[in-house]
Amino acid sequence: MAMVIRTCKAALRSSAFLASFISLFYYGVCLSRTQLGPRLVSPKVISPMMWDQGLCVCAGCVLCGWSILIETKRRRQEVALFVAPRAAATLLPRQYEVKYFWRERAVFSVSVALLFALAQDNPHWVRGMLGSVLEKTLKQT
Description:
The protein is mainly α. Helix content is 77%, strand content 0%. It contains 5 helices and no strands. Helix 1 runs antiparallel to helix 2. The longest helix is centred in the N-terminal third of the chain and has 39 residues. It is flat and about 70 Å long. The model has no long low-confidence stretch (mean pLDDT 83).
């Protein structure tokens, strides 16, 4: 019974996170587009088209980021690890020259080696499905 209650709490927390993320994003967009933007800055300085092209989305992103505080600390870490590569992709080029592929292979090799070393030393350090798969794989050998 305790597991059912814990699962329901986690589901409610995740649902509240997602609902607040979406609603805060659209609230930020609408607020900056209709209320704050036109009142704070003259349309001659920042045109309505500029608000629509990016400033509204930026305001929405600033507000929706606060919804992560609903999640538990452990879940925040998992979300951060999920979001970090996507955030890096906005800053780094998406097309690589062939001569630089060795860097990607080297980083991947080091990270996989690190995961295997951690899973072999203490399987509980690698969480989630990957941790359980590595633990079973390393036990068999």
